[in-house]
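I can't quite decide. Please look over this sequence plus C-alpha cells:

:::
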Amino acid sequence: MSGSGTGLEVRRCGNADLPVLLALHERAYGERRSEAHWRWRYLGTGAPCSITGAFAADGRCLAVHAGLPVRLWHCGAEFGARMCGDIAVDPDLRHGLRGGRVAIAVTRAFLAAFGRDPVALMWGYPQPSMRRLLTGPLGLLVVDDVSLLVREVMPPLAPPPAGEVVVTRQDRAPADADALWTRLRGELRTAVVRDRAHLAWRYDAHPDVTYRYSSARGRDGALLGIAIVRDGGLHPSAATLVELLVPDREHAAERALLAAALEDARALGRVALVTWAPAPWRIARRLQAEYGFYMHPTSYQHVAAPFRRDLDRDSLHESWYRSFGDMDFV
C-alpha cells in the first residue's frame, strides 16, 4: 500500500520479511530477538501472522505494528483478538515529523487489515511518546492507567488451614485446566480465553522465560485455581505473578496460591512480588485489604481499539478481566 504520505511502502508482512523485522527490533529496542521468539509470538497460536510494516526502497523496515493472535471471551461467545506489541519506529525517524506520520500510517494499515470480524478487540501498552502520537489521530481508547500491586516477600503469608487446600508445583499447565477455565468464564463478561491451549502457548512454550505453576486442589482433587510466577518481568528485584486464576468464591485456594507465589519469590531471592489487577475488580481490593499488597503507579496506560458496539470504554474499564498475561512484554 503506497500513497500514505510517508514515501515508504506500507503493507502487510509475511515470513519472508522476518530478517528485516528482526533488524528493526534490534535498532529500536537495543536488544536482539531470536527467530524462535518471533515465531512463537506471532505464529505460535496457529493463526495467520498479523503484522504491518513500512519499507524503504532498499528493503529496510523502518516501522512496524504487530499483534499476537489470541481468542477473546465476550458475553458468552469467542471472538478473535490481537494483543499488540513491537510497535516500533526506526530511531533515525523518531525526532522529526516524518517518524510520526510513518507510525500513524503503519498502525492505520494494521487496524484496516486486521480490525474486522471475527476480530472484536485489539489492545496494547505503548510507550508514552507513542501513545500520545497514536491515540488522537486514530481514535484509540485509553481504558485505564496501569497501577501495579506490590507486596514484600516478608513476612510470609499464612496459608489456609492444613488439608483444606493442597498446592502442588509444576512447569506445565495442568491437564484439567480447561475445566477451571469453564468455571471461570461463567464469572466473566470479557477476557482473553485462558484455557489449557492458551496457557500452553503463552507460558509453557515461551522460548526465553521459565514460568512456575502452582495448582490448588480441594479434598476431592478438583482444580480450584492456578497461579503462575516468573522471575523478574518489570524489575529485577521482584518476581511477577502473571496469572492468578481462581473463581471468586474460592478464598481458601486464593490465599494458598498467593502464599505459594510469595514463597516462590523468596526462593528466587527476590524482595517483592508484583502483580496487576485492574482497580474495579474485587481481587484488586482483596489483595490490598487482606493480603498486604500496596498500589504502585506506572507510566503505562491500557490502550484499546474495539470493533463491536458493546465494547465501549466504560464496559472495558469495568468488565474486562486482565492480568500481566495480557501484556506482551511480561
